[in-house]
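## Example pair
The file below holds two records. Each record gives the amino-acid sequence first, followed by its structure token line.
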Amino acid sequence: MQVRYFAGAAAAAGIDEELVEVDDGATAAQLVTALAQRHPRLVPVLEVASLLADEVAVRDRGAVLAAPAGGQRLQVDVLPPFAGG
């Protein structure tokens, strides 16, 4: 899947995006664990970040991240909390 990092998540990961291979049927929690292992500085951000899977909020970290139909790659965005004003 294609993982994109925004704002503080990109700073902590040191990159804006990457391809991440996970098993079919992987959950959001399993993806977060894989990202934490790749980028230890990202751990505090992942604890409070929102995830979007193909632009849909993933509120349950136990949810399975299913690839879209047609063999396309799933896109997951990691969004840290933002302050607005």
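Second record, same layout:
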Amino acid sequence: MAMTLTLQTIHVISATLVCLYLVAIVGNWYAIKYALKPVITLLIAYPTFRKPFPYISLGLVFSAIGDALLMIPHEDAFVFGLLSFLVAHILYIMSFKAPVRLSWAAIPLTVFSGTMLYMLQPGITKENVAVQLGVIIYVVAITTMTYRALFTGNTILTIGALLFCVSDAVLAWEKYVYPYTWCEFVIMLTYYIAQLCIAVVHC
């Protein structure tokens, strides 16, 4: 019971801080955003460390590192942030226990990923070769992570993986196509819900 209460408390605190972060986005409170962004992800990760093989925990830690790097307004920091999230997705793929098989679910996911790459292509081609390859590899990784989540048959995990796709798609759109004012709010809302869904399943 004590562990259950502890997990509930951590999740409530995490959800509360996420709400505060979203308010900070609307209010342009940069100090609060910079302070909270990686801290929230680490807080979400904390209950998962009791697992013997903490792939999810490590994935969340690398996500927190990526969060911090993406706050730095420099292209090199973005590349390293992308690399951190790539490692996180590989760790997630390793943690999702599901058989590898063909599925009709592969069709819409592949179409979505291919369409996103096509629409991002004009903006991506302005970057160096390393960034172009990095984006392609990252899209393959997050698509694979989503397949694996679907194959587990776990609804919460599937929702988390799909929301992660939405978050990254909007992030890519903001960076390489057009930065709408609502992008950051949608990116962070879907991102934190995604991470919470993935973490809750593995607590």
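Notes on the second record: Helices lie at 2-27, 30-45, 55-70, 75-95, 106-124, 129-152, 155-176, 183-201. The two ends are 14 Å apart (CA to CA).
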